[in-house]
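User: I'm new to structure prediction. If I give you an amino acid sequence, what do you actually give back? Let's try with this one:
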Amino acid sequence: MRIKPLVIALLLLAPIATAQTPARSDNWDPLRSLVGIWEGTGSGQPGVSKVQREYSFVMNDKFIHVQNRSTYDPQLKNPKGEVHQDWGMMSFDKARKKFVLRQFNVEGFVNQYVMTSSSADGKMIVFTSESIENIPAGFRARETYKILGPDEFTEVFEIAEPGKDFEVYSEAHFKRKK
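Assistant: Good question. You get back a string of structure tokens that encode the predicted 3D arrangement of the chain. For your 178 residues, that looks like this:
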């Protein structure tokens, strides 16, 4: 009877046919939750601000483009007020297996950060500067993102003068708009 060899063949092949193919590793997983449009408030050395930020995939999902705007109304800490803008590009350096953030600030600074740590649960991400253009040598910067949920995160921006420890310059609390 031919049915018996067919049944045996199907039983032998069933585990192979039903085995799930492992999901393809996505380099962007640690940063994917940031993609979107965000609004919130900030505070720090320049005063209190309203913040807007957008993270979006560009160039066939090879990079994440970051646009940031912080608006400081006139206040005691900052009598003239100001508008800070920066644009950035996040990339994955395959040779180092690290994320890199290149950030261009309206004040003329260009920061190059590398992701120096992230928590196992993906809820905390730290970028530390490798270089900063247009500032005296030895200055360092650090950005720490704390993911509070799918629609909320905080960012702490710290700077360190040459030979000194990091100090908080500003903190921002973002909620997803889109």
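You can read the tokens as a compact description of the fold. Here is one thing that stands out. The radius of gyration is 23 Å.
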